[in-house]
Design goal:
oxidoreductase, Butyryl-Coa Dehydrogenase, subunit A, domain 1, acyl-CoA dehydrogenase activity, Butyryl-CoA Dehydrogenase, subunit A, domain 3, alpha+beta, flavoprotein, AcylCoA_DH/ox_N_sf, AcylCoA_DH/ox_N
């Protein structure tokens, strides 16, 4: 069972409350998002009235403690919301997820004053927030960022350029990473990073051009430019020079959300393909009566449910703060996103010519799925992380270190 120690490590906790919540989110997705999918794809913008309805339902605050204006709920509830929203509109889920990439590090590493000031407006949907870490030359390599922050007259002055920042065009608050001191050695590149809470309307903060990526129409990323942005000392998030921990802790949790997003995409693509195979006739027979189609659908369902179980398991371990939750999150993100890509591709093939027609809305699943394999740490990085965790666990148990 290595690296796991007990069969109880594989327990998945799902309650009746989770199911009731799932039905509520699905109703919202079907009623508010589904009729607007083509409009969102065409205009590359999510209508404001959908955000307003989400605010009224409290969707912005799922997973955020009630003490800070949220709706409460555990990791499984957040996972279910991500899945159900992504089944219809991954772009809308990404917009909500960008908020969590801000609230998660503030809740874990922030001071009480920071939590009271910045979390409630986001949880209530009064403002949006974003997480600005990625740069043109540093994505999965968090330690490679070039943005700098220097102390000057009792404040921190940040200069740099962030890239692929989801939700930044609407964000009022951002968490921003910067190098506050040089790394002590090549092998300790991760040292010397610090995170800051930055407000959008501060002098020197500029939201640059939208980056026209292949998918997630309606919520595409922007560039963020930081030009001599002065940040007060009280807006340092966590400890100075220890920002790498802030980043990896945030992404360890965020990867479960991306896995859930991928499961939702795969679910939506499977449903479309299954329904089409029942309705479409070829040679005076429904498509589903042909083995080539039936086998594809069976494979799609098998991979989809495997990815769902893996994702729910990772969410359960994360909620328990199990020491293998990080490994589970990497596995879930890696497998679920590749399943989404595979299922979406098969859905297009089952649809034939209709599958590559933009108007039918099938090909968008593949465009969206491919992006999930890259952000929150590309999948090859997840593979490396899994093996490193296993080696570290084995050495820690069986080798006496000097």
């Amino acid at each position: 069972m290595f690296p796991f120690e007990s069969l109880q490590d594989f327990e998945i906790k799902v309650t009746e409350d989770h199911e009731l919540f799932r039905r509520t989110v699905r109703e919202f997705a079907e009623k508010e998002l589904l009729p607007n999918v083509q409009k969102i794809e065409r205009n590359n913008e999510i209508p404001e009235e959908i955000y307003q309805r989400a605010r009224e339902m409290g969707l912005m605050g799922v997973g955020i403690p009630e003490a800070y204006g949220g709706q409460g709920g555990d990791m499984m509830m957040t996972t279910i919301a991500n899945e159900e929203l992504s089944r219809v509109s991954p772009a809308f889920m990404v917009r909500i997820g960008a908020n969590h990439l801000f609230t998660t590090p503030v809740l874990i590493f922030g001071t009480e004053e920071q939590k009271r000031k910045y979390i409630p407006p986001v949880a209530k949907g009064e403002v949006f927030a974003a997480h600005a870490n990625t740069e043109p030359g540093a994505g999965s390599d968090v330690a490679g960022i070039k943005t700098t922050a220097r102390r000057e007259n009792g404040k921190w002055v940040i200069n740099g350029r962030k890239y692929f920042i989801t939700g930044s065009d609407k964000a009022s608050f951002l968490v921003v990473s910067a190098r506050t001191s040089p790394p002590p050695s090549r092998h300790e590149r991760w040292k010397g990073l610090t995170f800051f809470i930055v407000e959008r309307d501060w002098p020197g903060v500029k939201i640059g051009s939208k980056i026209n990526v292949m998918g997630l129409r309606g919520e595409q990323p922007n560039e963020v430019i930081l030009d001599n942005v002065e940040v007060p000392e009280e807006n340092v998030l966590g400890k100075i020079d220890e920002g790498f921990k802030v980043a990896v802790t945030t992404y360890d949790r965020g990867r479960v959300g991306v896995a859930a997003q991928a499961v939702g995409i795969a679910q939506g693509a499977f449903e479309r393909a299954f329904n089409y195979s029942l309705q479409r006739q070829a040679f005076e027979r429904p498509l589903i009566s042909f083995e080539g189609v039936a086998f594809k659908l069976s494979d799609m369902l098998a991979h989809l449910e495997s990815a769902r179980l893996l994702t729910y398991w990772a969410a359960t371990l994360s909620e328990k703060n199990n020491n293998l939750a990080v490994t589970a999150a990497s596995l879930a993100k890696m497998i679920a996103t590749e399943v989404a890509e595979q299922v979406s591709s098969l859905a297009i093939k089952i649809h034939g010519g209709a599958g590559v027609e933009v108007q039918t809305g099938v090909e968008r699943y593949l465009r969206d799925a491919m992006i999930t394999t890259i952000y929150e740490g590309a999948n090859d990085i997840q593979r490396l992380m899994v093996i490193r965790d296993l080696v570290r666990k084995l050495i820690g148990k069986n080798v006496e270190l000097a």
